[in-house]
Write a structure and sequence with these properties.
Blueprint (H helix, E strand, L loop, with lengths): L9 H6 L1 H14 L2 H16 L7 E5 L2 E6 L2 E3 L1 E5 L8 H13 L4 E7 H4 L9 H12 L3 E11 L8 H4 L7 E3 L5 E5 L4 H22 L5 E8 L12 H8 L4 H9 L6 H9 L8 H5 L3 H26 L4 E6 L21 H7 L5 E5 L5 H8 L7 E2 L6 H13 L4 E2 L29 H22 L2 E7 L4 E6 L2 E7 L12 E10 L2 E7 L1 E7 L6 E13 L2 E7 L11 H6 L7 E3 L5 E10 L1
Parallel strand pairs: 4-5, 4-13, 5-6, 6-9, 9-10, 10-11, 12-13
Antiparallel strand pairs: 1-2, 2-3, 7-8, 14-17, 15-16, 16-19, 17-18, 18-23, 19-22, 20-21, 20-23
Helix pairs in contact: 4-6, 8-13, 10-14, 13-14, 16-17
The structure holds (2R,3S,4R,5S)-2-(hydroxymethyl)piperidine-3,4,5-triol (DGJ).
């Protein structure tokens, strides 16, 4: 049977439409109407039948996972600086470093102006070169389509778009001034970006449908309007005066119980109406403007995502510029970006976007990851930090929220990744193989089969600790796993500033735990004897999914507290697992219980 990926996409189909029409006319002379219908049906099926080896998302037990070449895949990623990928020569120096740092996936920008410098004249040399570079280094790619919007602005639109403000209208602010931002309320803008993006996706189908180097696409980058809470261009003003579209009203009513609480509050405060203008439904505030912008960006990008998927249907995500502490109102941050407040609006308006992903450049990663991990939104983090704090983020997102992957920003600049702690400015250059990220990805890579399996079974959790949050308890299987920052045994007030762990229940009394600078104790979580003792503990490693034991852990390795009376009073044995700073390391532990 013909490979559906080699069959024509929508663009090809448009180009060959006249030939097809002529053929059908001839057929009509010979065939009955019924025969034509069945032929059309067969053709449609062959074009839409999914290729199981093409990257896609799949609900597997408790998790939604990314499937690549037929197997679940964990993105150990990294994003390059915005324009790094505009130079193949430069990227040739970067790929081998990223491979050495144990990345399996690289997120690279592809600017609209780089591939369509003149209208309708596409040049995908850069795309092909990036694919070649990635493949040579055994890496997968996620392309970031920098089309109409990059961080809210339209700097990556080609000159022929930027310069023709008549044809491609700009957003306008309250002041009446236009900004260098394409208005999402223009059909010409929508058609131009969609055509370019669909041509790009058609090209990917042609050059990548056998090798599947590309595993996902990020559509645009941190969209939303900066400078005002809503666009005031003519098209925008007309749309704002119209009623909220029935599709959004239906969604709100059908999903009322699970709506983001602040969105629901706005709707309820305005009287929970089922029809009306944006201000009638959501109140007369900048929040109504933000919801209006979210809906319209979502519709724009849904149209693009669909057109792209008609060509090549790999998963698509958006990324969010999270509200920063200094931002007071929408417009300080991109108004309409898929923030938690408006994720429901995006889900209603852009079903073709599979994931709304957060860019977590804020210190409280565990909070933000939780906001974006929802039943209808698997967690993927396309931008965050890549230092030691970033590693904690990666472990947490993947372990606690069944994340499909992690990707620090700016990985082409390894100096940025050598910092000891997230947000610090430690200047010492560190060899690539000793970077926190390199070591952490090595650990996550060896544990990948176990992690992916545990995500589907819901037998995985994680801890993300710092001095503000020094301990976390994870109820998993028959025990509560208590993870704390590692303490100095003689002076327990002396604790490490940062620690993290992934915890996987491997059997009724057995766990694999990988982490750094933490200590771990266990409390029974089922009826029976109330104290958990260590029956057996060992370090080791996974080779092709198989556990290879190393050293036994006992004596000083597991002794947390000699004060037996105090430990017994807390139903503790005084022993537990310890994970030092030279890591992360992985340990297997078997527990037993006593009175
Ligand atoms: C977030 C953007 O999405 C990235 O493209 C980049 O501009 C970073 N900010 C810079 O920190």
């Amino acid at each position: 049977m013909e490979n559906p990926l080699n069959s024509p996409g929508k663009l090809d189909r448009i180009q060959t439409r006249s030939q097809t029409t002529r053929k059908i006319m001839r057929l009509k002379t010979f065939c009955s109407l019924a025969a034509i219908f069945s032929l059309a049906l067969a053709t449609a099926n062959s074009q839409t039948a999914p290729d199981p080896n093409m990257a896609h998302l799949e609900k597997r037990g408790a998790a939604t996972q990314l499937i690549v070449d037929g197997k679940p895949y964990l993105v150990l990623g990294g994003e390059t600086d915005n324009t790094a990928s505009s130079s193949l020569e430069y990227m040739d120096t970067v790929w081998p470093k990223l491979a050495k740092m144990n990345l399996n996936t690289v997120l690279v920008g592809i600017g609209w102006d780089w591939v369509e410098p003149a209208e309708g004249k596409y040049d995908f040399t850069l795309v092909d070169g990036l694919l070649t570079g990635a493949r040579k280094n055994n890496l997968h790619l996620v392309f970031l389509w920098f089309g109409s919007w990059k961080n809210g602005l339209s700097s990556f639109a080609p000159e022929w778009v930027k310069a023709d403000q008549q044809r491609f209208p700009r957003a306008r602010l309250k002041s009446g001034k236009a900004v260098e931002v394409l208005s999402p309320f223009s059909d010409a803008n929508l058609q131009a970006d969609t055509r370019a993006y669909a041509a790009f996706m058609q090209h990917l189908r042609k050059v990548d449908s056998k090798q599947h180097t590309v595993v996902m696409i990020q559509l645009e980058n941190e969209v939303g309007l900066l400078g005002d809470s809503r666009d005031r261009s003519a098209g925008a003003e007309a749309a704002f005066a119209r009623p909220v579209p029935p599709e959004l009203m239906d969604y709100l009513q059908k999903n009322k119980e699970t709506l983001w609480p602040d969105l629901r509050k706005l709707w309820e405060a305005a009287g929970t109406k089922t029809a009306g203008t944006w201000q009638e439904i959501f109140g007369n505030s900048t929040a109504a403007d933000e919801i209006f912008m979210a809906w319209n960006y979502a519709r724009f990008m849904d149209h693009m995502a669909k057109a792209g998927k008609d060509e090549y249907a790999v998963p698509v995500f958006s990324n969010t510029w999270l509200v920063q502490p200094e931002d007071k109102s929408p417009g300080d941050y991109p108004s309409g970006c898929p923030e938690p407040l408006v994720i429901d609006v995006w889900k209603a308006g852009a079903p073709a976007i599979d994931i709304n992903a957060p860019d977590v450049h804020l210190p409280n990663f565990s909070f933000w990851a939780g906001q974006f991990h929802r039943p209808n939104n698997p967690l993927f983090v396309p931008e965050s930090s890549g230092d030691a704090g970033g590693v904690a983020n990666a472990f947490y997102g993947i372990g606690q929220y069944a994340g499909i992957g992690y990707s620090p920003f700016g990985v082409n600049n390894s100096a940025r990744l050598s910092e000891g702690r997230s947000g610090s400015n430690a200047p010492t250059p560190v060899a690539l193989e000793n970077l926190p990220l390199t070591r952490a990805y090595a650990m996550l890579a060896q544990m990948t089969p176990l992690i992916l399996d545990a995500q589907t079974k819901g037998t995985i959790g994680a801890a993300w600790l710092n001095t503000n949050q020094p301990a976390q308890s994870i109820a998993l299987g028959n025990y509560v796993v208590n993870v704390e920052l590692r303490k100095n045994r003689r002076n327990p007030a002396q604790v490490q500033p940062l620690g993290y762990a992934i915890v996987i229940a491997a059997g009724p009394d057995e766990y694999f735990i990988a982490g750094l600078d933490v200590q771990v104790t266990f409390s029974p979580n089922t009826p029976g004897p109330e104290i958990a003792g260590l029956a057996d503990a060992e370090t080791g490693r996974f080779v092709q999914g198989r556990w290879i034991p190393g050293r036994k852990m006992n004596g000083d390795d597991v002794l947390l507290d000699y004060h037996q009376a105090a430990a017994a009073a807390n139903n503790q044995s005084g022993s537990g697992l310890m994970f030092g700073a030279d890591g992360p390391t992985v340990q297997r532990v078997k527990l037993y219980r006593y009175h």
